[in-house]
Amino acid sequence: MSDFYQNGIITNFHNLGDRPVAALESELRQFSRKRPMGLILPSLYSELEGPALSNIVDELSKVDYIGEIIIGLDRANRDQFLHAREFFSRLPQHHRILWNDGPRLKAIDKELAKEGLSPQEPGKGRNVWFCSGYALASGKSEAIGLHDCDIVTYDRSLLARLMYPIANPQFNYQFCKGYYARVASGRLNGRVGRLMVTPMLRALKKLYGPLDYLDYLDSYRYPLSGEFSMRSDVLNDIRIPSDWGLEIGVLSEVHRNYSTKRLCQVDIADTYDHKHQPLSADDANGGLNRMSIDIAKALYRKLATLGVRIQEEDFRTLKATYYRTALDLIETYYNDAMMNGLKVDRHSEEQAVELFAQAIMDAGAAFLENPRDKPFIPSWSRVQSAFPAILDHMQQAVDLDNRGEV
């Protein structure tokens, strides 16, 4: 059971009891009559062979309030795409797979690239962006959820709690972020959120003074979670990064487009575990090293758009402030873990903080060296202004792929 405080600047939906999932689903079925619901699943083909996705599909097969499921499939050849069609065929909901590496969607991507409107690099951001376009094209859903495909502790109560704040017609929220304790197998996880994002936000406040944007981000219990839900019109106007800054970028965009009164977060799971990324201390292009650099760059870019003047000498001060704040948090989390009988390796925690401190510097150098960098994928609103028929073409391409037409 979580606490009951509303101590941020967005609404927080707590888990204050053990309400049965059947009761939530009964209400969601009623809501779906006025506000049809869909779900986006960004997936690598390799996740079809992993320990999580088969159970996720089994759980989703029991969900009758979701009318549409959109699966974004990356890194799949034709045979693997055909296998994916069979794999997901047990879903009773209307579902479509976006074969992102197939000839039809690659042809659309090539047309977009001619006008500089295509995602610049592969990854989850690109996958989510194409799925969002298809959701707009199909027009079947007014409330849309999104979650990852590597959640090994998944059960359908997660989806029910994630969708409820957006699906309830009596609520006026446009966007909802899921959160949970990163605890699994007797260990305290979530190092990037705990030891990089939170202390970095607090260090930025000390360096640049109080900013509504930083207070806003600090209101999220777990800003890096891959689970969120939104009204479908949100998808039309947000720009998202194509790199590991996706989650921070989405939060920044909804903050820019909507009042904080229209944004919320919800406790969706007591325990949560998924595929863990390696630290990759020796490889700035992989693992948590790459992730932390991309997150820091996303924060710098957003602050610059808010008129914050970021100079080279700031990064040394930011690094020192961050480092001290993060070390204090290591002590706090270690004590909390001990009281709850959880394992925390303080040595590996300090190694992670040292890596994140260097990432803050590396991200700063990259930010200053590329002032004209365009990290955001254009909004679908902009794409449609350049290609008015793009959504129709995408829907046709996806439908042909899913029907197996050559």
Automatic annotation (TrEMBL):
InterPro entries with a match to the protein in the record: Nucleotide-diphossugar_trans
Record keywords: Transferase
GO MF annotation terms: transferase activity
Superkingdom, natural source: Bacteria
Key word Transferase present: yes
Gene3D superfamilies: Spore Coat Polysaccharide Biosynthesis Protein SpsA, Chain A
Name of the protein: Glycosyl transferase
Organism this protein belongs to: Larsenimonas rhizosphaerae
